[in-house]
Amino acid sequence: MKVFKGLFYKELKLTKNWFMVGIALLILGIIVGLGLTKYFNEPNIFAAITVMILVGHGLYLPAYLLTSLNIEGQTQLWLHNPNRGAVLFLAKLAAGFVLYAVSFFMALVVALWGLSHAVNAESLFSLTGGPALNITLIGLGITLGTIFLGVWVLFYWSLFHSLKKVPFLRSIRWPIVIGTWLLLTAIGNYVSNLPMYQKLKNIGVIKLNAYSIEFKAGKTSASAGFVDNAELSIMNGIIYTVIIFAVFYAAVWLLERKVEV
What we know:
With 261 residues, the chain is mainly alpha-helical. Helices cover 72% and strands 8% of the residues. The chain crosses the membrane at residues 18-39, 45-66, 87-115, 135-160, 172-191, 237-255.
């Protein structure tokens, strides 16, 4: 545990500037939203922008891990590191998740405030269960999604650097990684379309209320759908959790046996 704590705090120090840049971009997005709302005198613009910021957090952990792993590659901080690959990766995931949670919570509070001040706020909050419940479930989906993508980043990073040990593959590492991604994506699409998988996916389905945010700017009008007949499947979440563990251990195996760190 002491080793993990040390790596965890090291990771936070290593990426604190990245985190501050992320918070600055979040604040910038809020300022832009407020500015557009005031300019067009349309409160729903701010609500739509805050929702987009919230949903955009699905890419937070993958972006964080790419940045952190790139720093490791430049500084060679992992060179001759005696710790196991699982501990190294878990420290990165844990630190990234903590920073994600802080940023996501801020975005969630702002999004709820923006929705509560939307022009059609009464219709939003009159829905069964209220938007707070919907946003909570969506937030859970975004969180699982960012972890899922983050673990895949670890896998592809490990795969890319593991090919460096094979001389005749070193120059074609990118085509191999892209080819692997295309192959795994095709397999995933094939499996997801199987009747058996569709039956499993329909186990424990939670349906979310559908609503959208409408706004006008002069003579132009537009709408942003926040929830459009969305569904969350408990079984699907379990399946993806199993995939996350499998991909994570594949990344650890590549790191410990094939990557020169």
